[in-house]
Amino acid sequence: MEKLDIISLIPLMILAGASVVIMLMIAVKRNHQFTVIFSLLAFAASLISLGQLSSVLPRQIQSMMLFDEYALYFMVLLLISALIITILSYDYIKQFNENKEEYYILLFLGTLGAGILVVANHFATFFLGLELLSVSLYVMIAYLRQRDVSVEAGAKYLVLAAASSAFLLFGMALVYSQAGTMFFPELGNYLLKFQETTDIMMLGFAMMFVGISFKLALVPFHMWTPDVYQGSPVPVTGFIATVSKGGIFAVLFRFFAELNLYTFPNIMMLFMIIAIASMFTGNFLALLQKNVKRILAYSSIAHFGYLLIAFIAGKQLGLEAASFYLLAYFVTILGAFGIVSLISDREKDMDNVTDYRGLFWRQPWLAVIFSGMLLSLAGIPLTAGFVGKFYIALAGVEAGELALVIILAVNSVIGLYYYLRIMVMMFSPVAGPEVAINKTLYRTSMSSLAILSLLFVALLWFGVFPQSVIDFIRMVVVL
Amino acid sequence: MINISLETGLLLAGILFFMGFLGVMVRRNVIFMLMSVEVMLNAAGIAFVMAGSHWHQPDGQVMFIFILTMAAAEVSVGLAILLQLHKHYKSLDADAANKMKG
Q1: pTM of the model
Q2: Which CATH class is domain B7-89?
Q3: What end-to-end distance do the CA atoms of chain B give, in Å?
Q4: Torsion over CA: A459, A465, A468, A474 (sign)
Q5: Which residues of B touch A142 (CB under 8 A)?
Q6: Tens digit of pLDDT for each residue in A41-58?
Q7: Under an 8 A CB cutoff, do B41 and A169 touch?
Q8: What was the ipTM of the complex prediction?
Q9: Which residues of B touch A152 (CB under 8 A)?
Q10: Yes or no, beta carbons of A142 and B84 under 8 Å apart
């Protein structure tokens, strides 16, 4: 291993090291506040060390990991999300009796797993990153062990995610048995040389896609999503929606690009069906829900269906569209779960739609931020979500996938209904005996409020002046 | 040394994998579901070892060691969660844990 390899690995090493340091800190003395400050510094240090990397890119490390600008972009996205989740988690988790410090160990390990996924271009690193992420998630989901729903969600995710990992692994083994290599570029060469693939290899790819679709919550492997979203502590739900799914999407895109699987019509057909099914299922089932976390869970299924359109379109434009869409989605969904997490208290999460009745009259600023996030999810102009959707439509049209783009438009209209329902609830007047406006009904905190306001500003910024961000993405995100 | 063809090995792994999958689907006791998942993981391990020996590379066995390690981590976390599940629901029946619906 050379010196430059070590330098490239520093951002990941900081994440791994931070989890060990927190473990030692717990052994000496427990202090929640101090742990959080240390976590924020460690994430910041990791981000800064990423900045140092740009001079050594692209760097392949021993046919295991590839550090390039694409990886760097996603790594920055994941680390900033993890940083925001740390702040939101602090305000959320400090109200509980459980030991609080261990949570941050898991947060670091999960982020490390996602970071490894982003740079992985070998089955071994792919698998390691995914498992590091999943095993941390099992514990984070069941972290509030006094709550039965939290434990139930953890158990459900455990069994299903482990089974889906087995599918992924078996698929990898089948592909390896045919190609004799697990290194993405060599697999690409193999596929290029033998245009005809064996049935075993196709089966292998199919099983791998089962595993990946499960983690991305695509139809028909989406069953776990609403329960896990509802049962998890709110910041963890945000973590699943951003860091976990983002990392896996990044590796999926790299896998497809390096193996050039776009030339296989069967596989593309399969993904097209999954995309259409995800959009419709997500949006229609969200209409029936009364729980905000479940609504957001179903909407996430639909959103990853939209994202698949950019993925199917492929090429440079599809990649740019997906990168921008993920950025917009991260900002939006972190903001939305941030609000839910901020006002949830010890007794219960504020996740019923009726809990939001009259939020505007009690906490106007929170209601405005939440409305902005919901409008962005629905894809209303002037928000980041609109530009993201527009970009995806553009990529779809360019690739000649008109049918998919029309379905995207239809689904956006369906989606509007359930987002607006939450908004109407927030702006409707407080009814009955509660007329004496009780501001203390909802918790609030300065640090979370500041970070949410920042997300709100970013949302509008990306929505109104997207050009600078798009130019930046065009410059760095190349596969 | 007996020579086993790649196809035979993969077939064995495939049968094991399918049995494990069937177990996850059919069994209602969460402990048994977890055991079935282990069977699935080990089936993937066998497939890796077979593929590795077919290509005369150590990679298959390396992956198997990774799988072993990961399965151990998963089971330790899994059993801890199941203990909590039993505490809350007084049962390890997967159908009992249904507080969330919709």
Answers
A1: 0.95
A2: mainly alpha
A3: 57
A4: positive
A5: 81, 84
A6: 999 999 999 988 878 888
A7: yes
A8: 0.96
A9: 85, 88-89, 97-100
A10: yes
